[in-house]
Amino acid sequence: MSQMNDELVRPGVSGGLADVVRARFLLKLLVRKELKVRYRGSVLGLLWSYVKPGVQFVVFYVALGVFLGLEQSPTNKSGLPNYAIYLFSGIVLINFFTEALGNASRSIVGNGGLIKKIYLPRQLFPIASVWVSAVHFFPQLVILLAACLFTGWHPSLLQLAAAVIGFIIVALLAAGLGLLFGAANVYFRDSENFVDMLLMIATWASPVMYAWTMVQNKLGEVWFTIYQLNPITVAVETFHYAFWLPTTDGNTSIPPHLLSLWVPVALIISAGILLWGQLTFRRLEGRFAQEL
Fold first, then answer.
1. What is the pLDDT of residue 277?
2. How many domains in the chain?
3. Cβ(163)–Cβ(242) under 8 Å?
4. Do the domain assignments include residue 239?
5. Contact yes or no for 124/85 (Cβ under 8 A)
6. Ranges of the chain with pLDDT below 50
7. Range of the domain at 284
8. pLDDT for res 10
9. Can you tell me where the transmembrane regions are (predicted)?
10. Which residues contact 26 (CB under 8 A, 6 or more apart)?
11. N or C: which end of the chain has fewer CB within 10 A?
12. 26-45, pLDDT tens digit by residue?
């Protein structure tokens, strides 16, 4: 007779993000499912990953770069050189964040039918949404790289590393907030409206379309320090450092102490929000099936 384990294990107890690692196969299936469902019946399919940011870039470039004079030209020396690269490098990153957080915050409610039928690690749904957003991010990154190479892009290894770290900052932040609002949305559907408002603010609260020096000059050092505590701000600045700065003539600069101070601070804040989101998710997930 085989030896039986006397220890009782409570079924359906979550192991947190560790379950996501252990259920990697399920995560891949969810990512494939989300991609298939999203583009079912679509003519362009994944090409929308190119069309949407392209239209967004043209609108902002014409409105801000041409009409408001943010593009440097022979008659406008106060603008930003290669403003098109500056703008698009920020757009691709902020689009990744807005798509990842928006979809992750709705992922639990959107998969309510599956959650009520079987048990599987619920963290898989927000993380899968972030992963799908990363799939959409990389085609945009390819376009950015092509544009940078066309304008004489010669980055250093430090600049390339800064871009990778910037992406990690945004991914951690989106996953943490996605877990937090994904769980809260099960109990309070107003969370969706709050997330939409947060995403609108995030686009303008980071130097995606304007220079960081404008914030520093208008608000002063104290408020600029508070501004730099936003991990999205730091991540966008690392993308500008990696993709835009090497295409300029060297007369531009990055915020002081970006790599030595603000990047570590942003990593710590994003990791802290991920931990907060995970703890909140684990506390609330026990009644997901009943609430849904």
1. 93
2. 1
3. yes
4. yes
5. no
6. 1-6
7. 47-291
8. 54
9. 43-63, 83-104, 124-153, 159-182, 194-213, 259-277
10. 120, 121, 124
11. N
12. 888 888 887 777 766 565 66
